[in-house]
Amino acid sequence: MNIIKNLKVKRVITRLLVTLNMLVLPTVLAHETFLLPIQSVWEMNSNVEVRMASGLSFPDLTWGVNQERISSSTVQLNGKNVASPLFKDGKAFLTVSFKASEAGFGVVAISTKKRSGDIEHKNTEEYLEEIGASESIKQAFRALPGKPPLHRSYVKHTKSLICVKSCKKSQDLSLKPVGQKLEFITANEDLNRFQLLLDGKPLPHHDVKVRNSEKELYQYRTDSRGMFSIGEQVSGAVMLAAVAITLPEKPDGLYHSDYASLVLNTKQ
């Protein structure tokens, strides 16, 4: 009986700790948010399912994104909009699904509504580090008198590439942007070279991180044309991610960040 009681107590404590983490962590860390297909290739007439979530690390599905947070969405197959895709809220992930009516290349893209709030001063260094702020940005904020909070807002732009039966004849469609403010597109048909766009234009000399399904992290930097190539050691299901910060006119103003992620399978 004592063993059973101890097990029950441990379970209650574990649940409390998980709840506390969910309440505290989102205010401090810049979570990875992404659209994750449940598989990379579908058969024709099957039901395609892509899940949108935030987590401390790709590919963990931890916190679902509610439909009410969606600002815009694109669901396409072979460059044509899919009629009436289904959206379903969930605690761990938002599900986007549609019927694979034809073979070829598909894209699902979702941008969230702007969110804003303050970061406590004691957590600003960690937050600026998480969103990839440059040293000059950090120094400008450190120079403010007192211990002010950091005023921030952010938008998440997520995107995923999928394949029905075969993508070979329509792979070039992945080179075309869908119109997100910050967005990754492919730069070749081998799915190992990419371009980062801000407002539809190449974003040069910008940091990009790539994480595989084993949570291994790789760092890259775009060239003068906003392009970068991933190494041969990075393959399978991967997430590309980048953050673009819009600075305020004064250091105590609003720091806005646009976050972009792209999930694809380099072997599809």
- Our estimate of the beta-strand percent is 35-45%
Q: How far from one another are the termini?
A: 53 Å
> How many individual β-strands?
19
CATH secondary-structure class of the largest domain: Mainly Beta
Q: Averaging pLDDT over every residue, what do you get?
A: 86
> Topology as H/E string?
HEEEEEEEEEEHHEEEEEEEEE
Structure classification: mainly beta
Number of helices: 3
CATH architecture of the largest domain: Sandwich
- Quote the CATH topology of the largest domain: Immunoglobulin-like
Give the low-confidence spans.
Answer: 1-29
Q: Helicity range of the residues?
A: 10-25%
Radius of gyration: 20 Å
- Tally of structural domains: 2
Shape: globular
Q: What profile does the largest beta sheet have? A: 10 strands, mixed
What does this structure look like?
There is one protein chain. The protein is mainly β and about 270 residues long. It folds into 2 domains: about 1-30; about 30-115 and about 150-265, Immunoglobulin-like (Sandwich), CATH 2.60.40. The chain contains 3 helices and 19 strands. Strands 2, 5, 6, 9, 10, 11, 15, 16, 18 and 19 form a 10-stranded mixed beta sheet that branches. Strands 1, 3, 4, 7 and 8 form a 5-stranded antiparallel beta sheet that branches. β3 and β4 (about 65) form a beta hairpin. The chain starts with a helix and ends with a strand. The model is unreliable at about 1-30 (pLDDT under 50).
